[in-house]
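TICKET: design request
STATUS: open
ATTACHED STRUCTURE:
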């Protein structure tokens, strides 16, 4: 488990996070992904990169480019054929910074929230924000409302958007150069 003093990075990916030329917080963190942990328990995750293993912005961007490349490899294997660029491919367009302490500060009663190091092939820096039900009895609607509240909290916690176009996407600069990464900060 990561300590609350650590930083994590959320990769901004095209096309799934882009709406009208913008990658906004509600698209950068749209929802958790349902998974099963090693013990067979249902968990919900959001993929991020570990800042301690990505000490420079260049390394953060390299990680994001590798995340997109891994997604494209998986898609091509599933399709059984090369992917058409850019219609069928994933592209890294930058990152958002997130403090683990902000993740862990999300108000909650019915779920546990953690950030765990979860290396993947070629992505040793990969981590998951993990949401898991605790033992407190609650209606499904109550758990769903809490999950929605946590997502809103995480979106408000995104910071320091850093745009980037990977070298492998230099042929798509005209498509990507005007896409903006935005953050939501509460009114003062």
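STATUS: resolved
RESOLUTION: sequence designed for all positions
ATTACHED SEQUENCE:
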């Amino acid at each position: 488990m990561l300590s609350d003093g650590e930083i994590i990075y959320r990769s901004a990916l095209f096309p799934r996070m882009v709406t009208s030329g913008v990658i906004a917080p509600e698209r950068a963190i749209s929802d958790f992904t349902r998974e099963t942990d090693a013990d067979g328990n249902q968990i919900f995750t959001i993929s991020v990169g570990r800042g301690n293993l990505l000490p420079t912005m260049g390394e953060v961007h390299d990680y994001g480019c590798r995340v997109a490349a891994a997604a494209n490899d998986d898609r091509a294997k599933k399709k059984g054929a090369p992917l058409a660029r850019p219609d069928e491919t994933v592209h890294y367009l930058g990152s958002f910074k997130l403090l683990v302490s902000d993740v862990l500060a999300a108000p909650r009663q019915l779920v546990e929230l953690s950030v765990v190091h979860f290396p993947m092939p070629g992505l040793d820096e990969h981590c998951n924000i993990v949401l898991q039900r605790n033992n407190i009895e609650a209606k499904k609607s109550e758990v769903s409302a809490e999950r929605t509240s946590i997502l809103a909290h995480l979106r408000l916690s995104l910071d320091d958007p850093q745009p980037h176009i990977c070298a492998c996407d230099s042929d798509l600069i005209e498509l990507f150069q005007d896409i903006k990464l935005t953050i939501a900060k509460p009114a003062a």
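CLOSING REMARK: The mean pLDDT is 96. The CA atoms of residues 145 and 151 lie 10 Å apart.
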